[in-house]
Each structure stands twice: as C-alpha cells, then as structure tokens.
Amino acid sequence: MIRRINFARQMRSAGISVEALQKYIRLFDANEDNTQQQIALLQEQLELMEEKRDDLQAAIDHLRWKLNNYDSHMSATEEALCALEREHKTNNSKLD
After folding, report:
1. C-alpha span between 25 and 74 (Å, rounded)
2. 66 DSSP assignment
3. Which of 29, 31, 59, 69 could form a disulfide with 73 if both were Cys (CB 3.0 to 4.6 A apart)?
4. Percent helix, strand, coil in the chain (nearest 5)?
5. pLDDT tens column, 39-77
6. What 3-state DSSP class applies to 48?
7. Nearest to 14 by CA among 58, 45, 54, 59
8. What is the pTM of this model?
9. Rg of the Cα trace of the chain?
10. In this structure, are residues 15 and 48 in contact, taking their beta carbons and an 8 Å threshold?
11. What are the backbone dihedrals phi and psi of residue 39, each rounded to the nearest 5 degrees, phi first?
C-alpha cells in the first residue's frame, strides 16, 4: 500500500492526470491480465512527460539566453521598442 501511495504521489508530481492514474490502478487491480494496456498507458504518459520536459527545457534555454545576453540584446530591444512607442505617440498627436 505504501508503494502504491508513493507511486501515485510521484506520478502526480510529474504531471500525470488523476484520471490516467485511476485507470492504471484499475487495470493493475483487475483480475484479468491487463499488462499490455498498463504498458500502453504508462508509455503514453511517459511520452506526454517527455513533451512537457522538452517544452520546459526550451523555455529554460530561452530564458538563460536572455539573461546571458541581456545587455547586448534585451537593452537594445527595449530601447527600440521605446523609440517606436514615442514615434507612435508623436504620430498620433499630429493626427489630433
């Protein structure tokens, strides 16, 4: 029972849905051999986790790049955006 609780807690922390976890437990507890369905469900969940991990890693890499290049990239980008905003305000005030 403790192993099941630990498994459920770990899987929930990893992002497996309650529904998928319940389905897996029902398959596990069933009297018939559901091994292939259990494996398929776990494989599907693993693929979903790997996609989330890849998305998270891409976001981490992007933020790391922004931090490492803040002075050369972000400051210049912010200055350009501010200049565009000032230009937009000036153009709008001329129309009034």
Report:
1. 49
2. H
3. 69
4. 90, 0, 10
5. 999 999 999 999 999 999 999 999 999 889 888 877 778
6. helix
7. 45
8. 0.64
9. 25
10. yes
11. -60, -45
Q: Locate 7 and state its tokens.
A: 């498994």
> Position 8: which residue type?
A
With vertex at residue 33, the alpha carbon angle to CA 27 and CA 38, rounded to the nearest 5 degrees, is 40
Nearest-angstrom CA–CA distance, 23 and 37: 10
Round to whole Å and give the CA distance between 55 and 88. Answer: 35
Q: How many beta carbons lie within 10 A of that of residue 42, not counting itself?
A: 15
Q: CA-CA distance, 7 to 25, in Å (whole number)?
A: 10
Instruction: Supply 5's token pair.
Output: 């609780």
